[in-house]
């Protein structure tokens, strides 16, 4: 099996490449955190991004800053679902499961710094997007009146946590079962 030769590291062009370096660091962190979790070596992130550790720390002074930047993009994807006219709770949960299947770092980050304002901001953004979807689902008759926004947020946390803590080879099955339980609990009761 022939593997292509590794790409040579990109030359760091200093401040003129700051935005490009930042994007490269976030992309690399997404891969490194996916493979190694929240505690993965930051030197690996810098190496994969093709920048020096000094550049990494200029953009992200600590591990949490880098993780927040990665997960801001994830939440941006979830917000796009909530803002779309056809964004449903099923689509949202599918996207969250897809994110959890490839990375445990979000759960680890929240557990490492639950009271950090940056983490709290991410949680508030999730609550806002969930609120939009809950309202839409109620109006469409797909969600029971007994379901609160806090219930959906809790179910997201439970699903993501269960998926993240399950061995990789069993994650898809656990995600499917967790989604089925949530669907059954949230369905509109028939009179």
UniProtKB/TrEMBL annotation:
<protein>
    <recommendedName>
        <fullName>HTH tetR-type domain-containing protein</fullName>
    </recommendedName>
</protein>
<dbReference type="InterPro" id="IPR001647">
    <property type="entry name" value="HTH_TetR"/>
</dbReference>
<keyword id="KW-0804">Transcription</keyword>
<dbReference type="InterPro" id="IPR036271">
    <property type="entry name" value="Tet_transcr_reg_TetR-rel_C_sf"/>
</dbReference>
<dbReference type="InterPro" id="IPR009057">
    <property type="entry name" value="Homeodomain-like_sf"/>
</dbReference>
<keyword id="KW-0238">DNA-binding</keyword>
<feature type="DNA-binding region" description="H-T-H motif">
    <location>
        <begin position="41"/>
        <end position="60"/>
    </location>
</feature>
<feature type="domain" description="HTH tetR-type">
    <location>
        <begin position="19"/>
        <end position="78"/>
    </location>
</feature>
<dbReference type="InterPro" id="IPR050109">
    <property type="entry name" value="HTH-type_TetR-like_transc_reg"/>
</dbReference>
<keyword id="KW-0805">Transcription regulation</keyword>
<dbReference type="Pfam" id="PF00440">
    <property type="entry name" value="TetR_N"/>
</dbReference>
